[in-house]
Fold:
Amino acid sequence: MRPGRHLPLVAALLLGAAAVTAHAATIQITIDNLVFAPAEVSAKVGDTIEWINKDVFAHTATARNGDFDVATPPKKTVTSVLTKAGSVEYYCRYHPNMKAVLTIAP
Amino acid sequence: MFVRLSAAIAALSLLGSTALAQGAKPTDPQIAHIAYTAGVIDINAAKQAIAKASNKDVKAFAQDMVRDHETVNKQALDLVKKLKVTPEDNDTSKTLSKQATEKLAELDKLKGAEYDKAYLANEVAYHKAVNSALETQLIPSASNAELKNLLQTGLKIFQGHQQHAEQVAAKLK
Ligand SMILES: [Cu+2]
Structure:
């Protein structure tokens, strides 16, 4: 089989991926003075969350149902991609008084 | 088994009534000293726990305490430097330190799961006492706005620690 035969498939996959990326959004959630803001965010599977930690303290964004656990080091921005739908309550493992909700549509 | 409140906690609870009885609020240099001392006490307890604890969640909790309290205390040092305030030693700080040393010696005699439980029980009670002292005495008495701000951030961090300690303690049972 000649390698060229696979090209249309590869092209389709690449285009497909590009199409998905075009629809996916990047959403910012800020951590400032031990508060996640906005406290309630709606997103879709495939969206990227940009976690902006403005504090000098290390925090985490940890889903209560175990769907994600993101470490957010002091004064750093980290990103994570949403892979599962659902209404997810999350909190900081170090400071469980920090709480917020992410509603992820399929 | 842990009904006996540690003496350090009793000292913090007394802080309010003593100051009120004398009709004198602690000054900013005294508040800074008390807050810093309270942090050092928890760091020392945590260092003991890192060396002695057998449960990995207890050890991880102790590491969190060292990291956060060192960060808060660094903020406090930077602030007093900026404000050109010299923290002033006082009876509350002295009593706190003396009694924390006694508590460390008491905990040092314990081992294994018994130590882990005693450390966490003291962490819950200690953060509770510090938070109450911050809320009712130190924050209302602070006159400098930046100091008040830092104490308020400290209160949120320590309330988080109290809940975290309660969660780890509940898992030990
Ligand atoms: Cu946190």
